[in-house]
């Protein structure tokens, strides 16, 4: 049977509504609220103390205590009130300065990066009449950029050079931060304008914001957007979208999506590459992908990443683009020599500090038919494990690879390490079932697979394994039922058709037909 890895569906990002353009303002807003909350709390405590001091009950208590504590007779209540106020003013200043420092620190990394400033998109009256306005169009482009970044997060974990919980090749469940928020608004605390501080630092570093402006022109049959991006060296080609069946709103949505991708291509080419790669993989796995469209998308991705590498000479993200080129070379074009060379360049440039990097390098070579490439893949998996001995994905991959090679003892060693980490995920249990079957414990393997299928009925490769083992144990009716369920999910699955034919004939599938 095939050792296909489980690919979970890409998680749908949360949709964001339109509104005023606010790009990378989260840090500033959060700190501003915290400063206000702390100040409000301190002010409440001060008012309570002042209320107590000014109350009749306090004065009566004071008069009662004077005979026992004569020094209290010299206490001036007015002075006490002033002292309480002064103490809380000092406390407020200390805490505010502390939080202001924290805010500047939180924003400081972002100060080194260019940030996007969107101007309202100029547009014709026809669009204004149906409910759009210039600021809203700009805001929707911002939201589309965030959406594309969210989709890219489900792709490949190389941009941030840190380990994650999976990969496009295995389970597609990645999380990492693309942005470090910068306070865009002009927050003033104790007379200090944080926006001015930020601009002062950025100006001294020669870092300027990248402004995005543009206009939309409408004709009876199309919309055309002209974007102007301040740091784009070459001419930005107009975006043209046809209005089909008079659906102007759909045309606006499409032009916004294309504008978002164009801004990413100019400002963040590696994220744009990730997005294009994920979209290509999604399209190729759709119900009926058009071959010509697949080729078009492949060429777009390949050409764009090659141009991006050429333009990025000497820039920090160049190594990330080389790593992406390696993945594209192997996963899309099947050129494993080119993939290995690209990863090697990325490694030479410094992208080698995380286990995920070597995990992806191993993935890129593991599909090759060459035994040398497969051995090199094992070497990269081992390197990934040396960096992160508790990386579940690496341990799972090594357990599966040694199982495929027939080295059951080594496979079991890695599986035991997974179980010590209490990794009861689907892939770990799937490997355990295959290992049990390889050791002759097919019935126990079947029970594990049945449990997985009950929990996740749409995982085709698990059902395929269960159907095959059921057939092998002469449980032909169960096998036939499983193969029929698989064909409902994937009508073009030739392996399932062969298995169903053998099971209906009450015949065990020959070993060579199950490879």
Describe the overall structure.
- The chain has helices spanning 26-54, 56-65, 77-111, 125-129, 134-153, 194-205, 248-267, 269-284, 291-311, 318-331, 336-348, 355-366, 371-387, 392-404, 408-420, 426-438, 442-455, 460-472, 476-489, 494-504, and strands at 116-118, 188-189, 192-193, 210-218, 222-229, 239-242.
- It is extended.
- It starts with 25 loop residues before the first helix and ends in an 11-residue tail after the last helix.
- It is mostly helical and 515 residues long.
- Helix 10 (318-331) packs parallel to helix 12 and helix 18 runs parallel beside helix 20 (494-504).
- The protein has a four-stranded mixed β-sheet with strand order 1-4-5-6, with helices on one face. The chain has a two-stranded antiparallel sheet with strand order 2-3.
- Percent of residues in helices comes to 55-70%
Fraction in beta strands:
5-15%
Rg from Cα: 31 Å
Taken from the alpha-carbon principal axes, the silhouette is: extended
Class of secondary structure makeup = mainly alpha
Count of β-strands? 6
Runs in which pLDDT lies below 50 for 5 or more consecutive residues are 1-28, 156-185
Number of helical stretches of at least 4 residues: 20
């Amino acid at each position: 049977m095939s050792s296909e890895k489980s690919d979970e569906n890409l998680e749908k990002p949360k949709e964001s509504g339109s509104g005023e353009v606010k790009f990378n303002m989260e840090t500033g807003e959060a700190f501003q609220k915290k400063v206000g909350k702390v100040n409000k709390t301190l002010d409440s405590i001060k008012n309570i103390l002042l209320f107590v001091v000014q109350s009749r009950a306090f004065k009566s208590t004071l008069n009662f205590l004077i005979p026992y504590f004569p020094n209290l007779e010299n206490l001036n209540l007015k002075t006490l009130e002033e002292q309480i106020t002064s103490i809380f003013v000092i406390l407020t200043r200390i805490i505010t300065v502390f939080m202001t420092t924290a805010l500047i620190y939180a924003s400081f990394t972002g100060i080194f990066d260019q940030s996007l400033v969107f101007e309202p998109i100029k547009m014709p009256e026809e669009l204004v009449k149906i409910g759009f306005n210039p600021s809203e169009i700009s805001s929707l482009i911002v939201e589309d950029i965030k959406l594309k970044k969210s989709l890219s997060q489900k792709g490949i974990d190389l941009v941030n050079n840190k380990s994650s919980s999976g990969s496009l090749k295995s389970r597609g469940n990645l999380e990492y931060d693309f942005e470090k928020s910068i306070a865009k608004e002009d927050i003033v605390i104790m007379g200090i304008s944080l926006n001015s501080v930020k601009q002062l630092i950025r100006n001294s570093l020669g870092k300027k914001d990248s402004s995005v402006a543009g206009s939309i022109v409408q004709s009876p049959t199309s919309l055309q957007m002209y974007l102007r991006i301040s740091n784009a060296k070459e001419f930005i080609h107009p975006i043209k979208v046809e209005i089909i069946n008079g659906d102007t709103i759909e045309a606006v949505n499409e032009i916004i999506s294309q504008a978002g991708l164009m801004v990413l291509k100019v400002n963040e080419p590696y994220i744009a590459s990730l997005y294009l790669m994920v979209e290509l993989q999604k399209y190729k796995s759709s119900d009926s992908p058009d071959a010509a469209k697949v080729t078009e998308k492949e060429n777009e991705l390949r050409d764009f990443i090659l141009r991006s590498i050429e333009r990025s000479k000497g820039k920090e993200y160049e190594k990330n683009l080389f790593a992406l080129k390696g993945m594209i070379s192997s996963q899309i074009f099947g050129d494993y020599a080119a993939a290995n060379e690209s990863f090697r360049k990325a490694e030479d440039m410094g992208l080698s500090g995380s286990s995920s990097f070597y995990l992806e390098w191993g993935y890129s070579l593991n599909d090759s038919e060459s035994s040398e490439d497969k051995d090199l893949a094992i070497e990269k998996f081992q390197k990934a494990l040396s960096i992160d001995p508790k990386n579940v994905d690496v341990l799972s991959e090594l357990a599966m690879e040694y199982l495929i090679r027939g080295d059951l003892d080594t496979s079991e060693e890695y599986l035991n390490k997974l179980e010590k980490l209490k990794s009861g995920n689907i892939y770990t249990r799937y490997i355990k079932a295959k290992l049990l079957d390889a050791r002759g414990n097919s019935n126990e393997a079947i029970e594990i697979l049945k449990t997985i299928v009950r929990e996740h009925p749409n995982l085709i490769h698990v059902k395929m394994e269960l159907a095959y083992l059921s057939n092998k144990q002469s449980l032909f009716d169960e096998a036939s039922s499983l193969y029929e369920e698989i064909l409902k999910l994937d009508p073009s699955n030739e392996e399932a058709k062969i298995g169903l034919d053998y099971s209906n004939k009450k015949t065990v599938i020959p070993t060579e037909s199950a490879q």
